[in-house]
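FIELD: query
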Amino acid sequence: MKILIINPPFYRLQRASLIHYPPGCCYMAATLEEAGFDSVIYNADYDPNKKTILGNTDHINVKALTEEHDNYDRRLHSNDDPIWKEIRDYLIGYKPDVLIISVFNTTVTAGNNIARMAKELYPDVVTIFEGSPNRGLHCAIDPSTNGDFSVMDFAIRKEPEFTIVELVKALAAKSTDFAGIKGLSWKRSDGEVIHNEERPYLEDLDLLPFPARHRLDGWQEIPPHCFQGIYGSRGCPFDCIFCGCRTSMGSKPRLRSAKNMVDEMEETYKKFGTRYFYICDDIFFIEKTRAHEFCHLLLERRLPIYWSAQTRAEMVDNETLALMKKAGGQHVAVGVEVGNPEIRKLIKKGNTVD
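FIELD: result
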């Protein structure tokens, strides 16, 4: 069974390139690999010849992307655009039996385009959409409500890692009944869409294998800093109205252990040469004990690496910042959003400027 996982284009349609590895794709590839299934990841949003939106000093800013909107919209809906020809050629070259399309809120239309293209080329190809909650929680979507079931056979809701394994096992066994797979929406042969019961959130994130960065097509030619993202937690207890974290990952923070995170950083440094890492947790310092242990482990291992993280302002203190700097920390991104106290109440930020 030939399995292809695609990250659809978004920034490339705006003359940019998102070079950060697609974590949703890599986590699914990892659990599939652990279950004995090979896959290839095609990052259609990566172009080494373009300016980058992430992971380099040559940034394209938000203003530039906004100015590209009309051009983006035209290219998104133009079948003659070179990007769609590239994707078509890739599909023809690979001839997938199973096509997994990892979408988020800005790429669902591109994902529908790719699924439609694949069905035109190979009517029997199985198309699976995944809502990419690991690709930035603000961007996560439920593909069962946003994808196009005329070209989508299955939609994975919320955490995909074990749902995709159960689904691929069922497909390999030639099953036609998928009702027992939690977290799955699927289309029956008569066209009826079935929404299975929700899959409980994974409580112990250390059970997940590390993202399969090595499953990216051409990974040997990808710069080391592209592999920098470390995803150490899921879920958030706060109610900010502008964030989709609680919807996609729940209100209970679930944390990987400090050792598990540092193990991934060490492996990525040794395998890919990555020396700078970004901790993609919404609130890395939500549990100070873990943050301190993380720093002490980095100091013990004496790895020549540097890192940054993001947090809420009230979750950090001088002692923690000093330890972070000593352990190679470079900067902390803080979500300030707005200073007006009334607006902070309206957006349910849950803290004050004090």
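FIELD: remark
Residues 96 and 254 are 35 Å apart (CA to CA).
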